[in-house]
Amino acid sequence: MKAGQSVFATVSNFLSERFPVEHMNFQHMVEKKDVPVHNMSWGYYTGGLTLFFLMVQVVTGLFLLFYYQPTVSDAHLSVEFINKHVAGGALIRNMHTWSASCMIFFAMLHLLTSFAMKAFEKPRELTWIFGVLLLFLTFTFGFTGYLLPWNQIAVNATKVGLQSVEAVGEYLPGALSQLPHILRETFQGEASVGQSTLGRFYALHVVLLPLALLGLISLHLLSVQLHGMSRGVDQPTKKSERFFPFFIFKDLSLWSIVFLLLLILAWCIPFDSFLPYPLLAPYNALGSTPAGIKPEWYFYFLYYPLEMLPFWLILLATGLAVLVLIFTPWIFKGTSRKTLGLITVLASLYLVVMTVFGEQIYHMVKP
Predict the structure, then answer these.
(1) What distance in Å separates the CA atoms of residue 317 and residue 323, rounded to the nearest whole number?
(2) What domain range includes position 236?
(3) What pLDDT shows up at residue 10?
(4) 207 falls within a domain
(5) Is the pLDDT of residue 31 over 90?
(6) How far, in Å, CA of 53 to CA of 20, rounded?
(7) What is the predicted pLDDT for the residue at 279?
(8) What is the total count of domains within the chain?
(9) Which CATH number characterizes residue 252's domain?
């Protein structure tokens, strides 16, 4: 009984330090909050930009719900109808697709800058973990939303993704080996990717994932407001600015500029223009898999290594990376920001090289 009480007391103390009830008031979380000013201060805006693009996703997604039909017979037609016949439909859909990529880009950038600035230090461990889980959710949004237009590239890429999930079972011990197969059956819903799959991905994309995201982002933002911005540098900066109204005003000004740029981009350049037309044709179950099937750009860092290296090696590396991300506050507890900055540069370099030059590297390795 004493051991149980000791564990309960430890957990209770841990949570009370991370969510101090006495600080849950407007004065502490807004009026008295300061933002450090230093050469990495720009990193404080990456989280706000991620939130901004999420808001664009929600608003544009709600508009698209009025016309989108989540059936294999009408999904592609409804997307074409939105693009060609709904007033402002093409603009709204372009804003939705462009902002999806921007949201994922800034979510990754936010995590990298937070890591470099050691924003996971006590008492911000849970803030970091919530952020990592939010990043994983963001990738899941991208994966589920990719299928909804029901075109050749979407359906075939989803098949490959689900097959990869099931393939993980070969490397798991005992009863765990059946878990990936159960997950694939759960998400796919039938023998092959079809109506059940589309319906489940649609439900995930517009109901279940948003609810999970709302809960996590609420906890993440509450934690940020309770503990303030991390100092970001080794030597405490002597200069700071008030969170309200100065930082908030700068943040909203940046949002306005980015919204204008997003609007111009969505108006002038259709997101689909970067893909060959045949891949965007309606899915044909009797047709052969067209060349060029691959996931969205934000999965390239995983996709191209999978094409070049043994599956087990990528699986092991991915599993280790996930564990390191989740337990970062304890793994890098005593690490200097200089070392963290070097790790961040190396990780960023890998992501950029695989995203921009992954295809060229693949053809060099496997001509």
Answers:
(1) 10
(2) 48-296
(3) 83
(4) yes
(5) no
(6) 30
(7) 61
(8) 1
(9) 1.20.810.10
